[in-house]
Amino acid sequence: MSTTLPPEIAPGALDDQTAARVEALIEEEEGAQNRFSGWLGWVGTGVALAMALFHLWAAWDIVPTTTLRFVHVGFAMALGFLLFPVARRFRHRFMPWDWALLAAGIYVTWYLIAGGDDLLDRYVFPEPMDLVIGWILVVLVLEVARRATGWVMPVVAGLFMLYAFFGNLLPPPWRHQGYGTDRLIPHLTITLDGIFGTAVDVSASLIILFTIYGAILQLSGAGKFFVDFSFSATGGKATSAGRTVVLSSFLLGGPSGSGVATTVTLGTVAWPMMRRVGYRPDDAGGLLAAGGLGAIISPPVLGAAAFLIAEYLKIGYLEVLRMAAVPTVLYYASLLFMVELDQRRIGAKHAAAGTEREVISVESPWALTKKYGFHFSSLLAIVVFMVLGYSPTLSVLYAMVVAVLLSFLRRDSALWPRKLVQALASGAIQSVGIAATCACAGIIVGVITLTGLGLKFSEIAIQAAGGNLVITALYTALIVWIVGLAVPVTASYIICAVVAAPALIKLGVPDYAAHMFVFYYAVLSEVSPPTALSPFAAAAITGAGPYRTTLQAWKYTLPAFVLPFVFVTDPDGVGLLLAFKPGMGWGDVALQIFLAAAGLAALSAACQGFARRAMAGWERAGFAVAGLLMIFPALVEAAFGDAVPAPHWIGVALGAVLLALQWRSTSRAATA
User: How high is the pLDDT of residue 188?
Assistant: First the structure.
């Protein structure tokens, strides 16, 4: 994505110092881009436009799989070396080594395409030049990933390559036979199991189309409309500030395509209002970051990892959307619970101080809808086309056409050729970081498949957990979370889908549930240091401490991230994914949704320390226990067996009793 601030942020919305800090944080995720003028600027735009047009053509016509993947990585390398400097001090200058790397990337791409089937056929007995080209490709991929995403991914990929070369020197169970250059390099660079594996295939065939679609929506003003509409629809009420953040984050998920961009867009507009109604800077920053995280899991676009789920499971993308629907609603329900309790707590403080909170005046939502309501079509178009039977590729292509045509309903949103070229080029540039991440992750996955590390790791995890599903799930969540500390969401999912998910599947968890479990915990990397860029960006806007803001973001997201354990530890929990095991019906699904929602409400109250009134410590503990019993009864069953019958309903009863006690005490206080 562009490292400039999102277009929804009006000039002057941030002071120069804060804007610089926010932009620096975005650059940590998306790389520090060169901003060329003159002929270099035209070249950069031309290459990006060529990349976009090639992939639009590939979406319409048939392009051989190998050619599509080779060209996609080739374009990513060309744009990466052109637009991302080797170091910040060389920014906005195109240095001689950039020319050399760009030329090398073009030559390697030509060599792979020209090699054709002959190259693929001889990967077992490669020629010397194949190995030279392979090593050059590995180095180029590591370097473009470093420029676009930072040091972590290339270093991790390099460590995996060392494991492939020298794994024969390790003790069991990590030992393998060891592989030389003749075996490893062709596997990573010629076959479709390494750099050009599933991740790059999804990036080339789907993700780039969605980034282009998101850029079209941004340039046509859809993002700004969704922010304005959310403020309008929820304005004028005491609870409008928090509710606005929740609603805006859901609507912005598609157009922004980035958690940190959503956080920045919302923060610049929402923070002044949140401050006026009583939010502390760290609380506001935590809620803004939690909203940005929600954008990654919001249909119809979700995050890039969602496309990989469809590919790994060999299911339609519409199936992934179906599975994500209820968990997404429950995530936002959890945020709304937290927001409502925020407002009760803040309102109680204002009442005790004898002050009134300012009411925000906003324009009527109907007036906005009459002007820009056509932007709502972007939330439905892709799904409608898929329901009509079109592939995800054609669905997003047709949705782009609809968005471009509808943009001409308003003069200020019309995508005339100059603006459309800008959108296409911007979408291609946004995909460079993702393509580089997927190619670099392909090195890791290639080593895992070649050495059998995934199977070894599954056996180790299961043995360490004693074959217990609940403990294995806890281990898996911890592993995914730790991996997510170092790498972005997409890379975290790619690695853990190969390494961690098989352990759950071996213990009888349906493959789709295991992958959705891994996906939701990979998303945690958006609010987990040291890659907690959303909370850090929110902290830069609100002026709070970044780590305190991160802790508040964890508080807001914690209830919802207990939920994925239901998918894998409760046989009926797949109902939350709108999947049915034998004998299940819609009544069972409704019961699962009710228990999950009630459990999230109880956990939200425990996290906030407030329900009808401020809680004592024992009440917070009681609500936490009630929430866990409703959401995660398998934890109790794993600890106590059948000694605690019907933990679901014990949790419901406990929550009801605690709420009744709160209600009784507040009623007494009101009548006193």
Answer: 95
pLDDT digits (tens, 9 = 90+) for 374-424: 888 887 888 889 889 888 889 989 999 999 999 999 888 899 999 999 999
Cα–Cα distance for residue pair 300/308, rounded to 1 Å: 15
Separation of alpha carbons 460 and 60, rounded Å = 45
Q: Which amino acid is at 453?
A: L
117-123: which pairs have CB atoms within 8 A and are 24 or more residues apart? 119/190, 120/66, 120/190, 120/191, 123/186, 123/187, 123/190, 123/191
The DSSP secondary-structure symbol of 614 reads B
Q: What CA–CA distance (Å, rounded) separates 426 from 83?
A: 12
Q: Please report, to the nearest 10 degrees, the dihedral formed by the alpha carbons of residues 440, 211, 528, 483 taken in order.
A: -30
Token match 């050495």: residue?
A: 451
Neighbours of 643 (CB within 10 A): 8
154 has pLDDT over 90: yes
Alpha helices in 257-391 (DSSP H): 259-276, 281-296, 304-313, 317-353, 365-372, 377-387
Predicted structure pTM score = 0.83
DSSP code string of 107-156 = HHHHHHHHHHHHHHHTSSS--HHHHHHHHHHHHHHHHHHHHHH-SHHHHH
Q: Which helix (H) or strand (E) holds 638?
A: helix 633-640
Using CB atoms within 10 A of its CB, is residue 57 exposed (0-12), middle (13-18) or buried (19+)?
exposed
Report whether 294 contacts 267 (CB < 8 A). Answer: no
CA distance 156 to 172: 21
Residue 667: C-alpha distances to residues 316, 349, 613 (Å): 53, 18, 11
Q: In this predicted model, what pLDDT tens digit does every residue of 158-171 receive, in sequence order?
A: 999 999 999 999 88
Residue pointed to by tokens 């599903």 = 469
Radius of gyration of the chain (CA): 25
The structure tokens 């209600």 sit at 663
**Residue 466 DSSP SS3:** coil
Q: Tell me the average pLDDT across 309-313.
A: 87
pLDDT digits (tens, 9 = 90+) for 67-109: 999 999 999 999 999 998 988 777 778 889 999 999 999 999 9
Of 558 and 623, the one with more pLDDT: 623
Residues 450, 193: Cα–Cα separation, whole Å? 9
